[in-house]
Design goal:
alpha+beta, two-stranded antiparallel ribbon, 4 helices, globular
Length: 144
């Protein structure tokens, strides 16, 4: 069995939507959010220079920070997120029409070679929801 750890996130950038509207429509809790033109701050609230150029919304769909491939496969968790989002297709496509970028992201960590296989069926389902799939690979162990 391939050994890696990973996390999954849904990230949305939009020209000007209130991030709370995204949470309400997707029935997901935002882990991080910022309104376009709002002052920039660090996660701890310290002010930074400038303002946010666009609205940003980020969720951990199942509110489970980390997964281990020995318990769950990234492909299965990603497919579960797509199933949760499928009934929200009209809203997701509306966001895309308004200029939003929607990323379904998996960030994986390992000291070894491993593979994540994204099936044609999964990729078609993502495309139908207007989701780009992003796989960030980090060459270090996280909780393995």
């Amino acid at each position: 069995m391939q050994s890696y750890s990973f996390s999954v996130a849904l990230r949305i950038w939009h020209p000007n939507i209130d991030p709370e509207v995204i949470s309400q429509n997707l029935w997901l809790k935002a882990k991080h959010a910022a309104m376009a033109r709002a002052e920039r701050t660090t996660p701890k609230g310290r002010k930074l220079s400038g303002v946010h150029a666009e609205s940003y919304w980020h969720s951990d769909p199942f509110e489970r920070d980390d997964y281990a491939s020995t318990d769950d496969l990234a492909e299965d968790i990603l497919a579960s997120v797509v199933e949760v989002l499928a009934p929200k297709k009209a809203f997701l496509l509306l966001l895309r029409e308004q200029g939003a970028r929607l990323h379904l992201q998996v960030a994986s960590f390992s000291h070894r070679n491993y593979a994540v296989e994204l099936s044609p069926h999964f990729l078609i389902a993502c495309g139908e929801l207007g989701l780009s799939v992003v796989h960030d690979v980090y060459p270090c162990a996280q909780g393995i």
